[in-house]
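dumping this here before i forget
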Amino acid sequence: MIAATSLAAFALVALGMVLTPGPNMIYLVSRSIVQGRRAGFVSLLGVIAGFVFYMLCAAFGLTALLFAVPFAYEAIRWAGAAYLLWLAWSAVRPGARSVLEPRLDLPVDRPRRLFAMGFLTNLLNPKIAVLYLSLLPQFLDPAAGHVLLQSVVLGLTQITVSFTVNLAIVLTAGSAAAWIAGRPSWLKAQRWVMAGVLGALAVRLALERRPA
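structure:
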């Protein structure tokens, strides 16, 4: 099975991804502020459903890929490292948008639509697709066997991290947004710290060699 160090490293990657501004976080924060915590939670359930969909597709697809094309690891590894560097730059580039900068023009929707919008927002989020197709394979060890099970374990780890962080933000979206609005220097520091974490993870992926 997956080594504890690899699982912890993947959890750190998942944490860096979920804390990076993106469509999911902007939508959840905006929905929570505009329509309340309950609406934010229902939307979050839709987002999690999107994660499960990606996890299952990637798990079954990656199992076939890893056994059929062993050298795919190299291409995927470098693609993952490049994507993490791009995320690091996105966190600090001029005009970068904070996850706590909400949209206030959202309509009030029913639970079914909230769930569907959360699901579609995640399903159409390219960051999540690349996470599962480029980054997750770096933490699989075909020599240990049960690649499908390893993929599911990693996927569930990412979903748990994402759900925990997103739930905390949904519950505190209003007060956190107000707090951040009055402290632009803190927001800038947070972006640079996150860029540093993502950059370090990119270097780790680029330099790591998986045992044969």
